Fold this protein.
Amino acid sequence: MKKLGILLLVLAVGSIAWFGNWGGDVDYYAFVPNAADGVISVYDSTEGEISREIEVSEQNIAHGIEVTPDGKQLYTGLMGGQDMLVLDPFSGEEITSIDIGNDLHGIDLDQEGRYLVIGQIPHVIDTEKNEVVGTFDLPEPLEQLSHLRFSNDGEQVYMGARPDDNEGFSSSETSVVVGNMEDFSVESRWPLRGAYTGITSYDDQYLYVVNYLDSDKNLSVLDTVSGELLKQLPAGKNAHDVAVSSDDRYVWVVSRGEVGRADEGSGVYIFDAEQDWELVKEIDLPQPNHIAFSPTGEEVFVTDQMEDGLIIFDANNFEKIKELETGNDPHEIAFLEQ
């Protein structure tokens, strides 16, 4: 699938391993940062359970996480810190640290494993050098990123961006920003109130953006060429992440629920793109946080912030396979093939 450029959604920071679904019958690990515990849970598909933990810090760690495809480097950081940490994903030992000059929130890695883009400040990190090699200049008045994801071909990255003001995600300036990875320039800015994070369809026709708002417009469908808003759909309250099946048919959205009342409007919402994005399944969960398809494309992983758990669903029949206990405050999910 073709990528349009780094899409910087105008919002606060955050990120998840945005792309997955490589297909095939493979074994894999899933890494989940438990932000409040400073610990990373590691799920092993051969055992069907969380097999170990990586202790990072006694402080809170970043919500985002990534692992290079060769299994040599895991990227995380400390909330409120100034450095990104590079760890050995098996021993947990620190390999090096990278000065990013700001708090780390969202992280995304291109599929080749060469470049990382991070938030809140949109730095580009070369994983071979483990240093900052570029920074996207956000158009005014945008200052902070939320979640971000690369296009499938790695040529662009899509991120959520917002002004640094008291309105937060509800600001009318909140936007999707598209960045070009060839020269680290901003290609486009598409204003979209509440834009938090997004993902492109595998045929590169659509960008799916979730809007972090207490409203009935929590999933937006945009044209990836023009940025035209094609459709907005209700998906609970405060949608927080989105994933797409590798055949482009199903769009899965997780919503955290109404602020102060997580049980109102929280859950997983599944839309059928072949039926004009009809809502075909709604699954109640206390406070789902992030979502990602496994490397096989047969399972869907969801972290739940209220239950401190990792929930695995069957991607074909939407049924829950199992629920596992993680640490406190689990966030994004990064995969590594064994």
